[in-house]
Amino acid sequence: MRSVLVSGSGIAGLTTAYWLAKDGWKVTIVEKAKGERLDGYMMDFYGNGWDVAEKMGIEEKIRNIHYPIIDVQIVKNNGQKYFSFPVSRMIKALDNKYRPIRRPDLEHILLGEVKKFPVTILYDTVVKDLENTPALVKVKLSSGIQRSFDIVVGADGVHSNIRKLVFGQESLFSHYLGYIFSFFHTKRDKSIGDNLCLYQEPNRQFGMYPYSENEMDVLYVLKSKEHKRMQKSEYKPFLTKEIKGMGWIAEEILENTPSEKVTFLDTTEQIRMDSWYKNRVVLVGDAGACPTLAAGQGSSMAMTEAYVLTKNLREFEDIDKAFKGYQEELSDYVSKIQIKGAKFAKSFIPSSTLGVIFQRWFMMVAMSPLFARKSLNWFTEKKIL
Ligand SMILES: Cc1cc2nc3c(=O)[nH]c(=O)nc-3n(C[C@H](O)[C@H](O)[C@H](O)COP(=O)(O)OP(=O)(O)OC[C@H]3O[C@@H](n4cnc5c(N)ncnc54)[C@H](O)[C@@H]3O)c2cc1C
To answer: CATH fold of 3-72+101-172+270-354, please?
Structure first.
């Protein structure tokens, strides 16, 4: 029986674990978090990732997740609606193969599928050291356990530990796209109703949506030249400074949220690598090819990559051939999404008031009943599975 260690139980790690376990591999997952991650943000889920979900038979589970969100509403600085469009329009435009879904909810569905197999999941555990030989990978875990595996899959996100251990430090591969973002969940502000509300002003964006009767997620995206990583204790003070004077209720919401709830802040870094594998270690998802939130397809890419990697491991007994097949099948697809994402990032949040007005107008036309299908299909990378 072939054995694999998967580092990370996000979308990429769980999808990889599912397919390999189904193919009879002995799968062990190590996950840095202390348990299943419950924090997260809403994602647009569609495209090739949806096709993988269908192959896994989980598309109805995804469709059955409901949030109290009817419309996407673009608001002015006094909170008044500028324009809105129903989420149902997006679902229809993408032929019911689209859902807005929070990352932890998709991960929960994937975890349920993984648990159908005898997979070992070690939470609160990371790889401390590894020796990547042509014959096997010797791994030392933070728990002190030492073991060997046929392959190791690095699915531990944009700041991947496996990438650092095997390929080198992050700065060799990361390309900053100009934004800092922070999300957290907090008490639902009733003024947003059943809407995903977005407010934009030059260089700053603020969004909120309810995900249950009493709770909502909040997301700030800020244009910034600086992109240093911060400690958790710095998140709220940094955000408070950066959103000073911001319109609508952007300041009030942050002020009323306790510091310990502001749990996530990061910079938009695309990870671009010439090769996603070395000997018996391979990267999947954001670890090897993070497209950033500007691409709007990272979860879909993560599932597609996991599917194609495991398909190649099924087709080729030889690990090198399998990894090569994975790289060759996907490098074009990945670079197209990354290039589009980097281009989109340039105009994602305009720097001038005129730019913001133009953006709103453009979005209103793009999401109108006449153009929604065309716009969303332009954004979606072509079908490859
Ligand atoms: C604000 C925001 C909005 C987004 N919107 C969209 C969208 O609309 N549509 C879309 O498709 N995508 C979107 N994305 C991108 C998408 O969320 C990611 O591309 C996707 O989650 C990548 O999955 P992953 O499994 O590769 O990485 P991750 O989700 O980062 O998972 C990595 C896992 O590895 C674990 N880990 C980290 N370090 C270690 C370690 N040292 N050892 C063990 N485990 C470790 C983490 O705890 C985590 O469980 C968005 C991203 C952001 C930030």
So the answer is: FAD/NAD(P)-binding domain (3.50.50)
